[in-house]
Write a structure and sequence with these properties.
By secondary structure, this protein is mainly alpha-helical. It has 2 helices and no strands. The two termini are 47 Å apart.
Length: 110
C-alpha cells in the first residue's frame, strides 16, 4: 500500500510538471507567433522579442516535456508489470493445489 502511495505521489508530481511545461510551451508558441506577425509587417516596426531565443527556449521546453512524458509512461508500465507479477504470484500459490486436485480427479476417473 505504501509503495502504491509513493508511485501515485511521483505520478502526480510528474503530471504537474508536465502540465506546467505544456502551458509554458503554448505561451512561448503564442509569443513567437505574435512576434513573427509583427516582424513581417511594416519595415519601420522593430520587434523587441528575439525570436531565435524564444525558439531555443521552446525547443528546450519541448524536450523536457517529452522526457517527462516518457518518465510517466515508464512509471505506468513498471507499475502495471509489478501489479501483474503480484497477481501472478497470488495465483501461483493457489495453482499447485488446483493442479493436484485436478490430477487427482483425473486419476480417479480413469
Amino acid at each position: 500500500m505504501i509503495r502504491q502511495l509513493k508511485v501515485i505521489s511521483r505520478r502526480w508530481e510528474h503530471w504537474q510538471k508536465r502540465d506546467s511545461l505544456k502551458m509554458l510551451s503554448e505561451k512561448l508558441r503564442n509569443i513567437r507567433y505574435a512576434a513573427q506577425i509583427n516582424n513581417s509587417g511594416e519595415s519601420n516596426l522593430k520587434s523587441t522579442i528575439d525570436i531565435k531565443k524564444i525558439q531555443i527556449e521552446m525547443d528546450q521546453t519541448g524536450r523536457a516535456f517529452r522526457e517527462l512524458d516518457s518518465k510517466i509512461q515508464e512509471i505506468n508500465w513498471l507499475t502495471e508489470l509489478k501489479d501483474e507479477a503480484e497477481r501472478r504470484n497470488d495465483r501461483s500459490e493457489c495453482q499447485p493445489l488446483f493442479v493436484v486436485g485436478f490430477l487427482g480427479k483425473m486419476k480417479t476417473s480413469l
